[in-house]
Amino acid sequence: GAPANGLGTSALFRSEDSGGGIINTGRISSVITNVTSGSSFAADLVLETRTGGASTTVEVARFSSVGAARFSNADSAAATVLDVLTLGHNTNVAATSGFGAAILLHGADSTSSDKPIGRLSAIFTDAANATATSALTFATRTGGGALTERVRIDGSGSVGIGTAAPRIAST
Fold first, then answer.
1. How far, in whole angstroms, is CA 73 from its chain's centroid?
2. How many other CB atoms are found less than 10 A from the CB of residue 154?
3. How many whole angstroms separate alpha carbon 103 and alpha carbon 34?
4. Is 23 in contact with 50 (CB distance < 8 Å)?
5. Maximum C-alpha span of the chain
6. DSSP-assigned letter for residue 168
């Protein structure tokens, strides 16, 4: 038959619990989200996991057919910050100043060519274990050039605009 919103296919992951019973632990699904006509439709990829004694799986991530992603967590904490998404960059050699991880933002220019348009980076300014210090940097591009650092917040909270050596202290 014709596709319909909400239909799809999934892979269910199951495990044995400590009492020998079988429990659902996760699911990956492809879900039809937007039937436009006949056999034309869009679908999302949905990840679900079982959390904290719940009897069913709950959605924790959704990747839409247009490339958007949503990560979520439902819990009973009302006054905390939860790391919903963690990005990491590891190395098998000793890290040095400048080592870190970034979120690179892309977009299509006027010729529909995909270009980097911004970057948020977290870098070590001192990578020694006992004195590790980091900074957040923001980079943009202008005049068709490469991404260039424009703003830096150093480990002490000082902010620099147009400099890698911040002098404006936070208060």
1. 13
2. 20
3. 29
4. yes
5. 66
6. B
Give which of 103, 60, 56, 99 is closest to 82, Cα–Cα.
Answer: 60
CA distances from 5 to 27, 32, 33, 39, 124 (A): 19, 5, 5, 12, 47
Please report how many Cα atoms fall inside a 13 Å half-sphere around the Cα of residue 82, on the Cβ side.
10
- Whole-structure pTM value: 0.66
CA atoms within 13 A on the CB side of 5: 5
CA distance 69 to 25: 22
- Per-block mean pLDDT, blocks of 10 residues, the chain (171 long): 74 85 85 74 84 73 83 76 82 92 91 92 94 95 94 93 83 67
3-state secondary structure at position 11 = strand
Rg (CA), the chain: 22
